[in-house]
């Protein structure tokens, strides 16, 4: 029995290690897609059974209107050098004829030239300046002692410890941005696979680049996980509490994310300033913003806040469309806590979605930030098959503004007056 448990635990941890390796290198065995195909077959089997039951019920009770409504729900599809004068050269007497010189020449007359040449080779003042200087002692770097072999156990152990310190600790710290990107992609991919996320990315050539702003429609906190599986972003969002707040603080230690209080005017002006500075530096990560400012149920796109469109950077739109047949990812924050929402996502069949990267957009000359935001919103809603609405998503938290009420009253008055 103990052997069975041992092998069971071994198999379990081997599988976990394998999954981590696959997720780290973004490899896949196709199991999740097969899983989705099996689910679709199961769903189709259930649909056929339901249709048969409805047909029998229709013949029995003749409730055509109710049955047609049920069919519409079941059948609905979602698409989703040195100078020469410094050399000692033997002097040759002048005014000597060639015949005289030939009679007085001896072989040892060349020894001075040979001596100067050998000295130049041994202690060349120029050439040795182009090679690494010989150190008085080895600094445990292989490249400064290429002929190093085994000298002693202690020295070899010290060299090994130094190699680990330099390559596994110091090098990643000095390559913080590259390391962060690789670790971020790995972690978010592992997180996405924890709730069986099947994400299809379209038009990857339009991915956000450094110094740009990526804007997308907002359905749930999972939107960040979905997009971060394919690119690294600096995030901008509202301060949260609980587990989500803990995650925000952990992310802020890794790179320059911006968290703010929604209704603090001082925070809002600071965010706009930070965004403008960020967009002027192409070496920084692209910023990910959800301009709606709240979660929408993925059937429409509501009003985009103009703040992110005022800073003058390049806008990279992205449209996210989920398939609700496998699980509804919408987070109703007014009714569900974050832990409750995570439990719902973990217990769903899968999270299946498509992400379209749209061509980058620029603010046109003379175009206001509001008109620019509407143009970007229209492109996202059209690509994702979502309804384009002008209403502010903050209506679920705040009362309707007085100006909007007056606008509706004016519209109603014009209808009455026949204007």
TrEMBL record:
GO terms for cellular component: endoplasmic reticulum; membrane. The keyword Cell membrane does not apply. InterPro entries: LPCAT1-like (IPR045252), Plipid/glycerol_acylTrfase (IPR002123). It is found in: Membrane. The chain crosses the membrane at residues 6-29, 151-169. Residues 212-323 form the Phospholipid/glycerol acyltransferase domain. The keyword Lipoprotein does not apply. Pathway: Phospholipid metabolism; Lipid metabolism. Keywords: Acyltransferase, Lipid biosynthesis, Lipid metabolism, Membrane, Phospholipid biosynthesis, Phospholipid metabolism, Transferase, Transmembrane, Transmembrane helix. GO terms for molecular function: glycerol-3-phosphate O-acyltransferase activity. GO terms for biological process: phospholipid biosynthetic process; triglyceride biosynthetic process. It comes from the Eukaryota. Belongs to the 1-acyl-sn-glycerol-3-phosphate acyltransferase family. This is Phospholipid/glycerol acyltransferase domain-containing protein. It comes from Larinioides sclopetarius. The lineage of its organism: Eukaryota, Metazoa, Ecdysozoa, Arthropoda, Chelicerata.
